């Protein structure tokens, strides 16, 4: 079965976004996908009250979680649910996490990854200042899950700039890495493809880079260019802007051959001496 990556142009209306995500997931499933990755903030972009949305979901009063489970079950599809706001497990109050869920084909939650690295940066674009920590708390754990398509390591967007996370996922057995994102137009043009290809090359994993690609509430522009990258760093498929679905099959034998011919994990040397101010440690 194929791997699918989805690109969206999410707005603030949660139910309209879920309907659009459902349309794209159904298209993926109809074309043979067994696992599909939705982009970051697939259910809401520019929503006025993320904490309230998170509380409603945690209390079983929101639309997103029931929709996810029903859609996965109806389509017989594993879904990486980009991100949605959820409070820490067992804590319906407090600052939510930017949470990526893995839902299996029976509609059961298999894994939860809370985004580790929050996008608190200044960008010379129409918005200028991004402070994700105003709305979210960071996660604290590395997350992998076994799927019928390979062992999946879970990441989100700004995580792409921290290669040590991806090295840790590879050392823990990752074969696929999900990277749902909503890169700004400016940073995406500068760095997006370089980052997703580098993370694939250094881990020798398939990188499933779902994306937001278009204009959102408040004039925010996202870069798009959702892509599927193979373990050699080749861009198998890419979509510049607008909604759509990308599909590719995992070549497990080819991936194994790459890892055997270039055994980078066996060549790692972190015990080499460190030189500080002219002295050896």
Automatic annotation (TrEMBL):
Residues 1-252 form the CN hydrolase domain. The keyword DNA-binding does not apply. InterPro entries: C-N_Hydrolase (IPR003010), C-N_Hydrolase_sf (IPR036526), Nit1/2_C-N_Hydrolase (IPR045254), UPF0012_CS (IPR001110). SUPFAM superfamilies: Carbon-nitrogen hydrolase. Keywords: Hydrolase. It holds the Pfam family CN_hydrolase. GO terms for molecular function: hydrolase activity, acting on carbon-nitrogen (but not peptide) bonds, in linear amides. The keyword Hydrolase applies. CDD domains: nit. Belongs to the carbon-nitrogen hydrolase superfamily. NIT1/NIT2 family. This is Carbon-nitrogen hydrolase. It comes from Stutzerimonas kirkiae.
